[in-house]
């Protein structure tokens, strides 16, 4: 498959997210062991690596769902604040998409998308709903606004979840294996929405096992193993000429053959 | 022995008033004990040790003291504690509310704990505060899930209001027992009382069954 974009973008500008030696422990288990990396404006950075290597944990440290024990996460030039009140302001500018969608089941698709602006930003409900409708149309679900999540397929639910995150006008989108819980038929529709988002210039951090997506869409790949970034580079380098033996075995384990 | 059912008809006005008070007491108790239960549950989940301890003491105390004792206790202790002379109805209401709030707090706690953590995280990740996430995301789901339990509590509560008759609240039980002692129509009045409780309670129980079927199993 031909890659459309490769290599870093906007390297001359300050990064949107920067990780400086991030350490995270759960009890005696060190899950992140000094991770440093940067995410530039408009980039798609994909996190790949074996199960349990700390990818989700780094993503959750980004918006402080987990608090790093060491090092720091810098967002738009500022280290993540300490108080809950300040963190809420930071989180508004980061959208997160979960493996299990985590749509709110007691709300319709439209309400799911509108609830953030209304509740958090105090937006006018009518305006918020109009914007939510536009976002649903953007992810190809303009006719499904009245459906509750239980009346949507997995792929549709995940697209609503993406629209919900976009409703807050985030500066960066965090995706944690957004297609891992999906039936194979519906993976493509979610990846297409993500690809379009990337083309519009959205800054994205994506944990994924979809190697062909990473190959085609990512600007930069971080390979995780045992709480460290063991290798990073543009997709062409990582997939075609990985230097680290663990990267090679991880990719061949997935059946990736360049 | 001759039975005189006429006595029931003769006192229909008093009995109807008793029924009204029983219903009022049930409605008022639930109207207070639902927010009360939520408040106590939130206290128990507070990060402030003293607050969560208070919440736990409240639940464990008022849930495990017999209701009739609470009713007597409210009757004798409340005026001393507050220096206010409560009406019998208000006293009974306080006792019922303490007991049912404690039960509801446990019900809500189970309901909230049954909502998976990812829901709270999704709300927080959007930038909601903990209390916004509770109000908008967790509690609406939790309440739906525990509706059958709340409905069962309601039905027990409706019958348990008869306990406040011991402090002379003029609800159905007290009224019926008063008429009994004035007319010496023991069997008639007890039978009438049972019939009225049953007639009022049975549709409620059926409604609860329906709620169980509708909401009990859904995710
Ligand atoms: N809340 C937690 N408490 C204890 N251990 C945790 C917690 N969250 C994650 N871990 C552990 O941290 C390690 C890294 O987890 P993480 O979810 O970041 O891995 P991952 O790279 O995302 O893996 P996967 O591909 O399976 O999602 C795992 O060993 C996991 O069991
Ligand atoms: Mg993970």
Automatic annotation (TrEMBL), chain A:
Q: Which domain of life is it from?
A: Bacteria
Which residues does the UniProt record annotate as the domain ABC transporter? 17-251
List the InterPro entries. AAA+_ATPase, ABC_ATPase_HisP-typ, ABC_transporter-like_ATP-bd, ABC_transporter-like_CS, MetN_ABC_transporter-like, P-loop_NTPase
Q: How does it sit in the membrane?
A: Peripheral membrane protein
**Where does this protein reside within or beyond the cell?**
Cell membrane
Q: Name one GO molecular function term.
A: ATP binding
Q: Which Gene3D superfamilies match?
A: P-loop containing nucleotide triphosphate hydrolases (3.40.50.300)
Q: Is-annotated flag, keyword Nucleotide-binding?
A: yes
Q: Which PROSITE patterns match?
A: ABC_TRANSPORTER_1 (PS00211), ABC_TRANSPORTER_2 (PS50893)
**Keyword Membrane annotated:** yes
Q: Mind listing the UniProt keywords for this protein, alphabetically?
A: Amino-acid transport, ATP-binding, Cell membrane, Membrane, Nucleotide-binding, Transport
Q: Report TM segments.
A: none
Which Pfam families does the protein's record reference?
ABC_tran
Q: Which family does it belong to?
A: Belongs to the ABC transporter superfamily.
Q: What is this protein called?
A: Polar amino acid transport system ATP-binding protein
**Organism (species):** Azospirillum rugosum
Automatic annotation (TrEMBL), chain B:
- Which parts pass through the membrane? 15-41, 53-78, 84-105
Q: Which Gene3D superfamilies is this protein grouped with?
A: MetI-like
- Could you name the domain of life of the organism this protein comes from? Bacteria
Q: Where in the cell is it found?
A: Cell inner membrane; Cell membrane
Ranges for domain ABC transmembrane type-1 come to 19-208
Main location class = membrane
Q: Does the keyword Cell wall biogenesis/degradation apply?
A: no
Q: Which UniProt keywords apply?
A: Amino-acid transport, Cell membrane, Membrane, Transmembrane, Transmembrane helix, Transport
* Statement: the UniProt record of this protein carries the keyword Transport: yes
What family is this?
Answer: Belongs to the binding-protein-dependent transport system permease family. HisMQ subfamily.
Protein name stated in the entry: Polar amino acid transport system permease protein
């Amino acid at each position: 498959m031909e890659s459309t974009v490769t290599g870093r973008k906007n390297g001359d500008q300050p990064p949107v997210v920067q990780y400086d030696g991030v350490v995270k422990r759960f009890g005696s288990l060190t899950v992140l062991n000094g991770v440093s990396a940067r995410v530039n404006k408009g980039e798609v950075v994909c996190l790949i690596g074996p199960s349990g290597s700390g990818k989700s944990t780094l993503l959750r440290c980004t918006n402080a769902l987990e608090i790093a024990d060491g090092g720091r996460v810098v967002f738009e030039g500022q280290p993540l604040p300490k108080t809950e009140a300040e963190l809420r302001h930071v989180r508004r500018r980061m959208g997160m998409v979960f493996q299990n969608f985590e749509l709110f089941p007691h709300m319709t698709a439209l309400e799911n998308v509108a609830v953030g602006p209304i509740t958090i930003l105090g937006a006018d409900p009518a305006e918020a709903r109009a914007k939510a409708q536009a976002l649903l149309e953007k992810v190809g679900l303009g006719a499904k606004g009245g459906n509750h999540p239980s009346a949507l397929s997995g792929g549709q639910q995940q697209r609503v979840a993406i629209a919900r995150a976009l409703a807050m006008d985030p500066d960066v989108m965090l995706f944690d294996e957004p297609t891992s819980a999906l039936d194979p038929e519906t993976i493509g529709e979610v990846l297409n929405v993500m690809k379009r988002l990337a083309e519009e210039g959205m800054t994205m951090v994506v944990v994924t096992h979809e190697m062909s997506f990473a190959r085609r869409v990512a600007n930069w790949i971080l390979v995780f193993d045992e709480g460290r970034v063991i290798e990073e580079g543009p997709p062409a380098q990582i997939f075609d000429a990985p230097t680290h033996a663990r990267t090679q075995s991880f990719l061949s384990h997935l059946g990736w053959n360049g | 022995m001759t039975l005189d059912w006429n006595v029931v008809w003769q006192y229909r006005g008093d009995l109807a008033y008793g029924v009204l008070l029983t219903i009022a007491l049930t409605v008022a108790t639930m109207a207070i004990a639902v927010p009360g239960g939520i408040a106590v549950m939130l206290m128990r989940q507070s990060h402030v040790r003293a607050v969560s301890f208070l919440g736990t003491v409240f639940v464990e105390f008022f849930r495990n003291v017999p209701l009739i004792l609470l009713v007597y206790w409210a009757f004798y202790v409340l005026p001393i504690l507050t220096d206010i002379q409560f009406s019998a109805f208000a006293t009974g209401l306080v006792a019922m509310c303490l007991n049912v709030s404690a039960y509801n707090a446990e019900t809500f706690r189970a309901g909230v704990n049954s909502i998976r953590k990812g829901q709270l995280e999704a709300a927080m990740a959007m930038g909601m505060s903990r209390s916004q996430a509770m109000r908008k995301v967790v509690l609406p789901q939790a309440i739906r899930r525990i509706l059958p339990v709340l409905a069962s509590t309601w039905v027990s509560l409706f019958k348990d209001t008869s306990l406040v008759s011991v402090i002379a609240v003029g609800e159905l039980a007290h009224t019926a027992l008063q008429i009994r002692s004035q007319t010496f129509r023991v069997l008639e009045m007890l039978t009438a009382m049972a019939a009225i409780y049953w007639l009022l309670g049975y549709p409620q129980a059926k409604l609860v069954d329906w709620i169980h079927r509708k909401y009990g199993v859904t995710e």
